[in-house]
Amino acid sequence: MNLKGKRALVLGIANQYSIAHGIAKALSENGCEMIFSYAGPKLARRVQPIADALGAKMCVECDLSNDFAIQKLMESVRSVWDGIDIIVHSVAYAPIEELNKAYHHTTRQGFHIAMDISVYSLVAVLREAEAMLQEGASVITLTYYGAEKVVPNYGVMGVAKAALEASVRYLAFSMGEHSVRINAISAGPMKTLSTARISGVSQIQRRIEKSAPLGCNINSEDIAKTALYLLSDLASGVTGEVIYVDAGMNIMAY
């Protein structure tokens, strides 16, 4: 696939095991220019070497819970590019104390944080990026089956992912008049910094190996291939969709 000349803003790389890293690697291999954004200074030492290795034009710290920080991010992007063709939003967060406990014990503050970072950050980024998005631009975000069915210990993140999927549909409608497409990939569980905080992921992966139609767990390359499709002109008629990359596990009743 030839993405030469396309420009992608990639949000959410934390380390080499991040889903966003796999997508960025695939974009780089297919000729796409990239700018990375990472959450805070503690991640800089992990993300900058990845940016260097993949030839990213810039690597910018941005707190996506802060509108001013997002505006500054876009100013940095405008200093390098006059337009954006692709946005990869691989951002989710809930305080660790809100996970692995009964959902009705979720605090108001924890709920707000999970919704702000995991859901509203996408809206905020697209609002600020709107003037730079090229005609036919494509946006993807990452979700999980816990948005539809109860996954033990996932708690408030499942509710946040459900809101994210609804947001994708509304964004697809509101941005469609500008020929901007937005879709979500519902990825099977992988061992990342995010999932490491949730108890029971290993058990879910073992269940997938036994029960999923393809009889295996997915990896970052599987997700990256689907991302390439959605981010390219091959998916020019696809928007507002949730595409499953989970070895078929979502179709199973048990």
What does this structure look like?
By secondary structure, this protein is an alpha/beta fold. The protein has one domain (7-246): 3-Layer(aba) Sandwich (Rossmann fold). The chain has 7 helices and 7 strands. It has helices at 19-29, 44-54, 67-78, 108-129, 156-176, 201-211, 220-231, and strands spanning 7-11, 33-38, 58-61, 84-89, 133-143, 181-187, 242-245. It has a 7-stranded parallel β-sheet with strand order 3-2-1-4-5-6-7, with helices on both faces. Strand 4, helix 4 and strand 5 (133-143) form a beta-alpha-beta unit. Helix 3 (67-78) runs parallel beside helix 4. The longest helix is centred in the middle third of the chain and has 22 residues, at 108-129. The radius of gyration is 17 Å and the shape is globular. The termini are far apart.
Strand line-up of the largest beta sheet: 3-2-1-4-5-6-7
Strand content: 15-25%
Quaternary assembly: single chain
Shape designation: globular
Query: So, CATH architecture?
Result: 3-Layer(aba) Sandwich
CATH topology: Rossmann fold
Give the H and E element order.
EHEHEHEHEHEHHE
What's the helical proportion of residues?
Answer: 25-40%
The CATH class = Alpha Beta
CATH-wise, what's the superfamily? NAD(P)-binding Rossmann-like Domain
- Mean model confidence by pLDDT: 93
Cα-atom radius of gyration = 17 Å
End-to-end distance? 37 Å
Q: Could you say which structural class the secondary elements and strand pairing correspond to?
A: alpha/beta
